[in-house]
Amino acid sequence: MKPQLHKLPVNPDASFIYKELIMEFFPMQWHFHKEFELVLIDKSTGTRFIGDNVNRFEDGDLCLIGPQVPHFYRNDDVFYHQKHTLSAQSIFIHFTEDFLGRDFLLIPEMKQVKILLEKCCYVLEIQGTTKEIIISKLYAMRDETPPQRLVSLLEMLIILSESKELEQLLTFDFSARSNDNTQKITQAIEFILKNFKQKIYVETIAQQLNMSVPAFSRYFKTHTRKTFTDYVTEVRIAHACKLITENQFSISEIGYKSGFDNLSNFYRHFRKIHGLIPKDYRKRFLSNKVD
Question: Where are the coiled-coil regions (predicted)?
Answer without folding.
Answer: none
